[in-house]
Amino acid sequence: STTKQVVTNQMTWTEYFNHKKQSRTFEVATSAGTGLLSFVAGSYYFMAVKEFDPTELVFGVMDASVAYSMGAMCVGIAGGVLGVFVGGALWRGSAKKHVLDAIDVMDKQFFERVKKYRPQGQLRMSLDSPMPDYYAESVKSVAGYRAWLRKQRE
After folding, report:
1. pLDDT of 118-151, one tens digit each?
2. Where does the sequence pass through the membrane (predicted)?
3. What is the dihedral of CA 53, 57, 59, 60, to 10 degrees?
4. Closest alpha carbon to 66 in 52, 76, 79, 77
5. Tell me: the pLDDT tens digits for 35-57?
């Protein structure tokens, strides 16, 4: 019988954080674009296409132009939130498979380390000791991870 060796594409932590930063930048840019585009489309629909009588109240409470403006803002916010997911999917679709596999492995390792070193027990929050970064969301580099570890020891 033959044995099959599995070669893992290992990346360094610096490369891992660079790829995560690139992914986040792509998500934010896509989110801004889709939010702006959906706000413009919602504004066009509510202000130009939808006919309304300015003398009538919507739900008997507010002016129609205020309600339609709020609707356009809500559509823009929804488009911005949707853009994060679309941007993440587009970035994952454009990245190479071996990079994605390595990132997934590093994600597991990173979150195991976070789980191991984060404070356990009750989270006491006060003005003197604010809530710690429990999930290490602010960590963007190896130096940031070391700083996060120092804060968790306190």
Report:
1. 776 555 666 666 666 777 888 899 998 898 888 8
2. 28-47, 67-91
3. -150
4. 52
5. 999 999 999 988 887 777 777 77
